[in-house]
Amino acid sequence: MRADYSSTEVDAASRLSFWWSVATWSIANAPAPPKPLGRRPGTPLHPFAASAVQPAMTDPIFHGPHDPALELRSRLEAVADPVRAAGEAKYLKLERRRVIGTSMPGAERVLTGFVQDFGLPSDSPLLARLFDASLEEAWCAIWMLAAQPAFDARSWLLTEAWSGAPDTWALADPISLLLVAGHLEAGVIADDVLRDWAAREEPFWYRRIALVATVSLNDGLHGPTRRRLRRIGRVPPIGESPRPQLTLDLLEASIHDRRHFIRLGIGWALRPLSAVDPDGAAAFVQRHRAQITKAMLRKARLDDDGRRTA
Q1: What are the tens digits of pLDDT across the range 9-65?
Q2: Angle, vertex CA 277, rays to CA 273 and CA 281, nearest 5
């Protein structure tokens, strides 16, 4: 028996048959779903090829599936306070860099939990994207790099790039104390790198970072800093070989600079110097007493003669 179909029914049946074939082929040839990022504590992140990352024009974090940068941001935002974000951005005078509004203890808990869940990231493109994002993400990137098993030429490339434009002392200081000092102590860079930075007038961050790096070089890492690093990776050996002469060279190259953050950096560098080389610190203060303010002496905890007050 021949079925008698109308032309409309034939067209509908043809279309249905066609799309069913397409759907069947798509399912059969679909790629396997991506494996989720390793969840076991201590499991390192799979390196992301730079060519696979397509950041937005104004946001370096790629909102794609299984992106660890997005996971870190989500965790930071989950414990953030918008009121705090506005106040901190104003206090730090940040115009280019976003502030999420996560407190320091909150950011530390997020960082520790992230490393426990995903492992310590070592991928340079990922760390670079984090540093170029918000204040809190950049802070996490600095600590992630500082806790790596070792410093090398690749980690120095990131450190050098970050040192030129940290935007705020809140990022410049951990770069100084952990990364620049750590690479110098490890022999990745020479003392003359810091001498060159201290001689630069612009950007002034290089001079500030060179000065502050001597604080940990002469005094090492202590208490909360060591505990935070130990929770996520390695505590780099910093401060095992104090460098009083290098510190004095950097101070001499910087003493003419009247900018606020450089003056504070000079005062901060003098404090541990006065412990490892008290005569050298005192001689420097006496030689430049007219250029050293009371605020710099208070920061250094020195009297008018450059001797320790506490």
Answers
A1: 334 444 434 444 433 444 344 444 433 333 333 333 333 323 233 333 345 555 555
A2: 65
